[in-house]
Amino acid sequence: xxxxxxxxxxxxxxxxxxxxxxxxxxxxxxxxxxxxxxxxxxxxxxxxxxxxxxxxxxxxxxxxxxxxxxxxxxxxxxxxxxxxxxxxxxxxxxxxxxxxxxxxxxxxxxxxxxxxxxxxxxxxxxxxxxxxxxxxxxxxxxxxxxxxxxxxxxxxxxxxxxxxxxxxxxxxxxxxxxxxxxxxxxxxxxxxxxxxxxxxxxxxxxxxxxxxxxxxxxxxxxxxxxxxxxxxxxxxxxxxxxxxxxxxxxxxxxxxxxxxxxxxxxxxxxxxxxxxxxxxxxxxxxxxxxxxxxxxxxxxxxxxxxxxxxxxxxxxxxxxxxxxxxxxxxxxxxxxxxxxxxxxxxxxxxxxxxxxxxxxxxxxxxxxxxxxxxxxxxxxxxxxxxxxxxxxxxxxxxxxxxxxxxxxxxxxxxxxxxxxxxxxxxxxxxxxxxxxxxxxxxxxxxxxxxxxxxxxxxxxxxxxxxxxxxxxxxxxxxxxxxxxxxxxxxxxxxxxxxxxxxxxxxxxxxxxxxxxxxxxxxxxxxxxxxxxxxxxxxxxxxxxxxxxxxxxxxxxxxxxxxxxxxxxxxxxxxxxxxxxxxxxxxxxxxxxxxxxxxxxxxxxxxxxxxxxxxxxxxxxxxxxxxxxxxxxxxxxxxxxxxxxxxxxxxxxxxxxxxxxxxxxxxxxxxxxxxxxxxxxxxxxxxxxxxxxxxxxxxxxxxxxxxxxxxxxxxxxxxxxxxxxxxxxxxxxxxxxxxxxxxxxxxxxxxxxxxxxxxxxxxxxxxxxxxxxxxxxxxxxxxxxxxxxxxxxxxxxxxxxxxxxxxxxxxxxxxxxxxxxxxxxxxxxxxxxxxxxxxxxxxxxxxxxxxxxxxxxxxxxxxxxxxxxxxxxxxxxxxxx
RNA sequence: GCCCGGAUGGUGAAAUGGCAGACACAGCGGACUUAAAAUCCGCAGACCCUUAUCAGGUCGUGCCGGUUCGAGUCCGGCUCCGGGCACCA
Length: 880
What we know:
This protein is an alpha+beta fold.
C-alpha cells in the first residue's frame, strides 16, 4: 500500500499500522504451503477426538454470506478445540452433482464436469482466503467416480437387502421436456422452463429406498438426541407422522339394481378383478371408539374401487373426473389446503361390522389416496372435516361421545377423547374413549374384521432422476432374460464392475427424457449374467444420496477398496458438532440418519445416529429481508474481504448477533470490527518488545510466580479483567456459543488496555504482567481472527504454531473482584449503590446499606419489615 | 387452522428472577490538522423540574392480568412479525 509510505515517515510507526491486505495474503501463503497444518492425527491417536463439521456446500461458484457465517462458527469452534488439546477433524467437500450444472451446460455450452470443477476451484480459493482451518487432504467431491462409485456400492448392498426396489409413483412430468421435474422446478403448476406448459402428474416406475423400514427407529431415536434442537426434532417427528389406529373392514353390500345393470354389460378384466376383491373396504381410523357414529364411508377419488365403479356409472365418472381436475388445479396453484370439500355418492353401501348398519359409500376429494388405506369411515359428530362434509351434503350427524356421562349437550363436532366417554354405542356405552379404542380394536381383531395398525406419513424415498449429472444407478435390464430373470428383468451390476462411469462427452438438450438414454455407448450393454444384450438403467440418483453419507468418507477419503475403513469411522463418529442451515432440518438430516442405520446394519459402523450435536444457525438478512439476487440485496463476501479483510468479515459475522438468530448485515459494523482489530494490532505491536524481553528474561516457574505476585493496582485490575474474559469465553464455547458477547468481552479488555497505556508506559504495570496479558489476548483472538492473531503471535515472539498452543486457563483468584458495588433498593426500587468488600457478611452489607445517606433519608419515618441481601447482587429493604 | 421462534434506545444487540440498554454501529460535541480523512477523548432511553449548572423526579423491555421483597426474564390471556406443516382420518 503506497499511501502508507506517504503517511508514515517513521518506520516504527508504520509497523504499528494494521494492514490486513498485507498480513492476510502473507499468512495464507504460509498456511497453504503447509498441508499438515490442520491435519488430524490418526485414529490410533490417544487424544480425545472432536469431529467438527459444517454442511458441505453446493459448488455454485460463489460463496455467499450464509456460508461465511456457517464456516466462521465452525472454524472458531475447531480452532478452540484444537487449543483445548483435542484431536480435531475439520473437513470440507462439495455437493457437486445436481441440476444447475446441466442448466449451465445449456446456457454456456460448458460441460457440467468442467463447470463444476472450476466452480469448486473458485470456492476453495475463497475459503482459503477466509483462513478456514480445513484439512484439504480429506476433501470429498461427490461428482468424481472415486466418490460416487460408493453410492453405487451402497445401492447394490441395499438391493441385496431388499432396501432398494422398483416402485410405481407419481411424479411431476413436463410433456415438453419429456422429463421428471423436482417439486422446486414446478412454478405455479407450470414447467419452470416452459411457462406455457402445465406440469402433469404421471405414474412412473422409479427406484425407491425403503426408509420406511426404519420409521420407528427414526422416530424413537429423536427422543434420545438432546444435542439436536427441539425445533428440528419436532419437524422430523411431524414429517415421520406416526399414528396408531385400527384398520376396520366394511363389507360392501351389492345393491340389486346396480349389479343387474352391471351384469348386462361387458366387463373389462381390471373391473372384474376389482369386483372379485370388492367384498370389503378397509378403512384406517385412530378413533375406532367412534364407529357407532359413522354415517358414511368416504373413498379417495383415486381409490381402486372407485376406478372400478366408474365404468358403470357415467355420472360418478364425471364427478370424480371433476374432483381430480380441481385437485390438479389446486396443486398447480399451490393451494391444496384451500380447496372446498366435495363428494359424490357411489350408489353403493357398506356394512358397519360393529352395528350391522348399512352406510352409503361416497367419493370425497378430501380423502388422501396415499395415506392410510385411502378410505375412511366418516364420523361427522366427532371429526371436524367429516362434520363439514356431512353438513354440506345433508348426511346424518350422530353423537357417540360426551365429555362425561352427564354432559350430553355440548356442540358437535366434539373431538375430545382423553376424559370423554361413549354414549349410544351399544355394549360399549359408558366406556372411556381411550380404553374403548383398545378394547374395540381387539374385538375387531378377534372377530376377523379389523387390526391394530400404525401408519406413517413418511413414504419410501424415490431416488430415480431423469437427469444426466448424477450417480448412474448400477442396474441393467436383460433384454431377452435368462434363467430366473424374465425378458427385460433387473440384473444388478456386479461389484467388481463398479464404478458405472458417467459418460463425459454428451450433448445436453432440453428435451427427451433421461439424457443417458440417448447415449447408446452407455445405454446398450451386455447382461453381466448371461452376456446377452441388455439396457442400462439410464436414470441417475437423487443428489440427497451423495450428502447422506459424505461425512463418513471424510474419515478415510482416499480409500480405494471400501467407502471407508470401519476402524477410522468408529473412532471419529458420531460427529461431535454438526453445523448448518435449518433448511436441511428434514430431508438431508432424515436421509443421513437413515443411511447411518443402514450402514450400521451392514456392519460398517457402530453408531446409530450420525451426529451427537446439531446446531442450526440463523439466516443472514440485509435490509430486513433474506439476501437474494431477485431482491438485489446481496452482499458479496469477496467485496467485504477486499475492503476490510477476512478477519474483520468473519468476526463481524460472529459479533453482530448470536449464531442461532438471524443476522442483519451492516457494512458499518464490519468497519467497526476492523477498527477494533486495528486497535488491537497497534497495542500488541507496540508492546511486542516488552513481551519478547520479558519472555527471554523469565525462567519457568519463577516467571509464573512473579506474574501474579507483588502487583501494582493497575496491573491487578488488568489481570482481573483478563481472567474474567478468559473465563467467559471458555464457558461460552462449551455451551451457549454466544460469540457476540465473547467478542464484546475481548473489546472490553482491549478498551481497558488502551486506557492503561500511560500506566503501562510509565512502569506502573510490570513487564511480566504486560507479557501475560498480551499473550493471552492473542490466544483469545485466535479462533475469531486467525490472521491477525497469527501475525501478532509471531511479533510477540510466541513459539510454535499459534493454533496448537494451549488455551489460556482462567485463574479464579485473579478474576475475583475485591470490592463490590451493591445496589440498594427500597421496596424494589433502586435508591443507591454502596461499595463493600467482597468478603463482607450479609449483616455488614446491610449495615453499610442502611447507613448510606440517600437510604437514611428515604427510610426516615418508615418501618423496616424485611431485608433481603443477595451476596454480590443487591440489598432490598422492604418498608412500610 | 396447527406447531415452533421472535418482539428491548435512531440501529445490531446485552442482561444465572436482582442496578435494563454491556459491547458496537450511526449521531452529536471536543482534541489533533492550514483543511479534510484517519486517530484519540467526551455525550448519548423518553419525559419532567431547573434560567443554566449541580442535582433531583417520573415513566420505560409489543398489550392486559398474575406470582414474587423484586419480572425483559416465571405463569395465564392476547396482538403483531418470521419460519415450518397443512384436509394425515
